[in-house]
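Q: For a teaching session next week I want to show students how multiple molecules come together into a single three-dimensional assembly. I've collected the sequence lines for a complex. Could you give me the predicted structure tokens for the whole thing so I can convert them for display?
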Amino acid sequence: MSSSAQSLSSAIRISDRGLRWRHLPAIFVAVALALVPLLFFGDYWMFVAAKLLAFGIAAMGLQILYGRAGQMSLAQGSFMGVGAYTGYILSSNGVSPGLQLLAVIAIAGVVALIVGLPTLRLSPLRLAIVTLAFGELFNWLLINTSQFTGGTQGAPVKPFVVLGLDTSYPLDAYLLTLAFAVVLTLLALNLAGTQSGRRMAAIRDTEMAAISVGVFLPKTKLIAFVLSAVFGGIGGWLYSGVTGFIAPPDFDLFASVFLLAAVVIGGSRTVIGAWLGAAFIVLLPEGFNLIGQPNLYALAGGALLAITALLLTDGLYGALARLTGMARTVLSRKGSIR
Amino acid sequence: MSAAQKLKSIRILAGVTILGLALTGCAVSGSGSGGGDAAADCVPTDIGPGVTDSTIKVGTTMPLSGSGAATGLATRDGQQAYYDMINADGGVQDRQIELIVLDDEYDPSTAQSRMRQLVEQEEIFVVSGGEGTPNFLGSVPYLERKKVPAIAPYAPSDQLGNMSNPHIFMAAVDYITEFQSVTEYILEQDSPSKVALVAVAGNVGENSEEGIKNEIGDKDIELLYIPETPGTTDFTPIVSQLTQFGAEYVYLVLTNADTGGLLKAMDRVGYQPTAVAWGGMSDSAYISEYGDVSQGMLVALETANLSAEDPASAEFMAKYEELTGAAPTKFNQQGWVQAMITTEALRNAEGLSRGCVIKSLESFNEFETGIYPPITWGPDRRDGVKSVGVAVIEGTELRVLQDVK
Amino acid sequence: MTDSIRAQNVTVRYGAFTALREVSLELPKGVITGVIGPNGAGKTTLLNALSGFTAVHSGTIHLEDRDITDLPAYRRARLGVIRGFQTVRLLERESVLDNVLLGTERLPQPGDISQLLALRAQWRWKKSAREEAREVLQLLGLSSESERIVDSLPFASRRLVEVARVLVSAPPLVLLDEPAAGLDQRGRLELATALARVHQQSGFTLAVVEHDIDFVTKLCTNVIAMDSGKFIMAGTPEEVFADPRVQTSYFGRSTHAQA
Amino acid sequence: MGSSPLGQLLLGGLTSGLLYALLLLGFLIVFQVSKTVNFAYGHVGMVGAFSAWLAWSSWALPLPIAIAFGVLLAVIVNSAIGIIVITKIPPDRPGLDLIVTLGIFLFLTAAMQLLIDAKAHAFPSLGGGSRVVIGGIVVNANDIAIIVLSLVVIGGVHLLFSRTTVGMALRASAESPAIAESAGVNVRMLRLGVWMVAGVIAAVVAVLVASRLSVDAFYMTPVLIKAFVAGMIGGMDRFFAPLAVAVGIGIYEALAIYFLGASAGTPAVFLLIIIALAVIPKRFTAARHEVRA
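A: Of course. Below is the structure for the complete assembly, covering every listed component.
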């Protein structure tokens, strides 16, 4: 069966009615999932859901860079920070959310260009180190420019008020992040069907083939890097609106490593994987709250992360795909639809 | 898609939007409840969330895991011990006090999530104390939005203790006051010409520097500020800077580990100025570990010194040991007094609504805890205390030079 | 609008080892040329030099009358010099169709922005590009496989996908490195016919490195023989295979090379 | 009093640089034979040092025995990680090793906090007290111990790799496991052996760092990051280059902090890293086999 990135992107293709029908179920599942919070959740879980969406957007960005283009970055958390603090500084100067968003996109992109340019020749591991260094620098900057950033004490962020939504209310925050999540997910899925997307995949799988057909690798690497940074920036900006408070630890090395963990655990090859991974990372601690052991997370969280990674080497998506695969065969044996 | 599906999805959408609007409405009114602005309107008949006929739920977040865990756990135990004692005596307003402390991992965003959980899931009535500055600050904007009073958290910060955050009632001084007060003492005793400050980079350091500067004023004293980043692996350069500068007094506002590490590094090259540390280092947990390199170090006293001489603390120590079977540490004491202040506020509240608690907090006047200096809050005052004591480390003991009261 | 590529005194060294020694040759316009020679004759190195995957130590390479000696590989590809690899290089986790579409790179594409945002230009382009790809797949008998992930394909089909990627942009100059290796007799025949048909349609210039004489004789009207890094001769298949030098150097060794 | 601040700085920088290098050494040999990035490596050392402290302070074991105990634990933990990584992680799963070891990293932190506590503790200063003044530079037994020990260990490992048959086998299995296997080398056992040696190194470094700073459940992370970074710059497939870089970072850091101020240390180091990697000659960065192979 074809990788879900394609299946879903083909689901939104104009051509290919056949494909489109085959993947309607996936779309319905997505819609249903998005509705769950609205129908069943109270303020707290709505807040968690909104946070998950913001986090997932950043994870999707990293999936493009790491999963599709095969470039490892340890700075996605920092790019969330770039977005969050850009928004914060602007909003404290009374700039409207709309303009904030534009600035977030622009600045995240420009920063990515600056960080990305010198790293073009580097092997994935070395790229990881440069991004790590950037992350450390960024965190240092946050702490040492407290007059703009609030420094180590962090900064309270004015809630976004747009179209009658006010992100200081979890429901509104959820609806807003959901809107972004939907649009950006469609864009990420669309990437698989574009030449840009194929160029990235070529960098990941075979640079030789890419060159042989005329791909200019550095440009593609940069686009992947900038794209992931913009996703990260938007994710971070939304995150700041959802929580109403940002501080350097939210965007430090560990934040970045956890985003990478999300992408790998979810299944780095697909956009869906990024979402599954984000859900895993965000909901794991909440799971411990549900079983009434909120303070157990610190101990068991790490172990669970390692075990899950070991058991599902293809990531959550791989497992899911296998399950649905089985389901399909079972159904078709029963001679039902398909 | 098929007409049937179209209809269905349209119906769902419509439903969602209506639901959405409804919920938004609730959210608005929900956050409205609990009293208007901070100058709270107290309706004695109102009953706040978390209050039943038999219990009052209070809670807070503290670092129970991660680098801040030691102090967090100790503070929690201190609070629990006090509430156990109160509950044994029949509780407050005929209700048992139920304490819930969640782990915030010393991380601001985690702290906020847990605080939301406490307020929205557990439905606590008020926030009882707390431990750690950056993590607690993570919850502050949310608490203010929800108008939940937070009582005597240990979170030294110049952002708290004023009317910009009217729901946070501070009984711990910020670093500006702390070091102004300590420097005042030093300058009474001695007239150094060069003092240095090694402090965690960022607000903590900046505040400490400001406090020292305030006290130095126009006196002819040079001040060298060296910001440090936690996790320093080599203190030699800092020590070299200090020796070159020739500081007679070196203020240390660092973690236990880094304070110890820096003093060790000084010791390695045999440099021995008078060290001056923030309140955290008056904890036995520090002295028992680093006493040998900390002899003669001055420390700020944020809470009364735990010594048999002082009757008040002697009584407290006895009581605590009787309750828990263990001698209290500074942070047990910290938690104990947080619970004491919270209890006092609940006891004096005309009614068990948040508004009334705020009113009762604002009526605190020279409240004696025997641990903190007398606490006074008012309709437009949120910094309950304005001074600290000073002690010196001698052997494994603290000798009080200037008492907290 | 077909081009011909010309190499003059091209020498390629890897450290001490000289892979191409003073090679001068040209691929006549619109002609299918077979490049033969025993293993280590420098056939692949020649392709690499022409396509820009190896830097030449000395000598020049002209495309038409343009000097492309120092042009990086991707620029040459954009000028229409497209090569295939001896060891198949594919996007392992992508579908056959996407692998072929990768080959459309040198055709005028909609801008990256309109691709990423899926603007109308992108939809239109997508439609047409998929048509192109489908035709090529048709031609190579891969239509049924177009949605499959390539790492699940048998080796023969993977080879064909590689060829399809090369052909999809209808390049004026194609360099193939043992495209028939690993195909069975029927596969080779089909591939030869397919290439011949494409040649009829577009009249492109094609150079094929190949061991299999039947394949060469069936497909090529011109043959270049090489041995140990040197150009030996060029001519019609008959001439070349008849030539004693080729007889000894090529058949002499390649037999026990095949054994 | 260090009347020669520069010399004092260089000494301090050198010693901490050597500590980075030593830790990197353990990281390096593991990477070279099993191509694994062990995020938890610093914490393996922490486990050793922290339990050594416990054995010494709480169980009142004599220091050498306590340390030996810690080293043993570190070896066990690192071998366990090794076995998991070698047997459970399939090849062609880039990043998976990082995530698994991240999980282990978090687990080790929490576990040690649970078993011992979350406080910072003073570790015996291992000769930090006894000092002599040479040319205005205050040198103490601790510094000398570190310098000598690290040079000995590094030299020893180098000899092991370059001169002995074991070393040959190691290099072979690093180049191509398959060929090594066919040549009758038990690659798995060899790899496990390397993981054990790495465990020893980690514990030793952790103990030395603890003797200079203090010990708790977290203190090794910054050391690991610097060692790791040095490895990346120097090249994980080399031997002396990365170690030299590690020492360089130590000294450079000390100088930067002294001349630019403590808060300038971080940016100075990481800016250097970015610049270094950006301008490194191609042959250096053409290290794709770093991740493959």
